[in-house]
Amino acid sequence: MNFAFSEEQETLREFVRQFLENYSPETTVRELMETDAGYDTETWSMMAEQLGLQSLIIPEEHGGQGFGYVELIVVLEEMGRALLCAPFFSTVVLAANTLIHAGDEAAASALLPGIASGETIATLAFTEESGRWDEGGITMEATADGDGWTLSGSKMYVLDGHVADLVLVAARTVGGVSLFYVTGDAEGLTRTALATMDMTRKQARLDFEGVSATLVGAEGEGWSVLERVLDLAAVALAAEQVGGAQVCLDTAVQYAKDRVQFGRPIGSFQAIKHKCADMLLEVESA
């Protein structure tokens, strides 16, 4: 079986890498890390308008391009390589995937086109103060309120939660864990940015006090959707890490060529060759 990327996928990689080299150099990354929003609005718009990155895996009937997950992995490797500061992971990998797999055509039709166009920044809020990632960690309550629902409780470590226009929320109803959506400026929703170790990826605490919400999918079926989304998110995060590992390898190899000791490049020494070969094996195997 051939696991190599296709010619079209490699072309996509080249386009994305060139774009990120122009708009996400190290100087820009360091500047955006220090901002509250954590991303540049113009770059975000160009990602959607020039490359269509936000629409990549969204079905065509909802304004997307309908590509598969492998194409998204190619893009994420390049974003990891560049340490892109943008709400792409939260919007596409978490929120868009949740809407795609929730089986709610009405919600998908209403919300996915905005994500595909780059107009909507979205996120998924499911982790709470316990920090647990399993079904039992979701204790936030959703109460039926006429034809709608009301959310009360808190969510922690929400990626880009302080800037999101759309928040998908996992909460517990009588039927079990269910999914809902609210707007970022909903009445009763308080958003607080959190300090993070990785300043390229912003997080927030979201406090809900009687926030009106709309059910996504079937009541009580939210956890099965989240399990699928979290599996996909783990693969996506691994792709970013592969991209980061690749640039580390490239930097190390270049240094081994440039650094001279005892009258010759240190890359000519067997011990250094073995270390570089081991790194290459690890990166290629990933």
From TrEMBL:
InterPro entries: Acyl-CoA_Oxase/DH_mid-dom, Acyl-CoA_Oxase/DH_mid-dom_sf, AcylCo_DH-like_C, AcylCo_DH/oxidase_C, AcylCoA_DH/ox_N, AcylCoA_DH/ox_N_sf, AcylCoA_DH/oxidase_NM_dom_sf. It comes from marine metagenome. Belongs to the acyl-CoA dehydrogenase family. The keyword Ribosomal protein does not apply. GO terms for molecular function: acyl-CoA dehydrogenase activity; flavin adenine dinucleotide binding. The keyword Oxidoreductase applies. Its cofactor is FAD. CDD domains: ACAD (cd00567). This is Acyl-CoA dehydrogenase. Residues 220-286 form the Acyl-CoA dehydrogenase/oxidase C-terminal domain. Keywords: FAD, Flavoprotein, Oxidoreductase. Residues 6-119 form the Acyl-CoA dehydrogenase/oxidase N-terminal domain. Residues 124-209 form the Acyl-CoA oxidase/dehydrogenase middle domain.
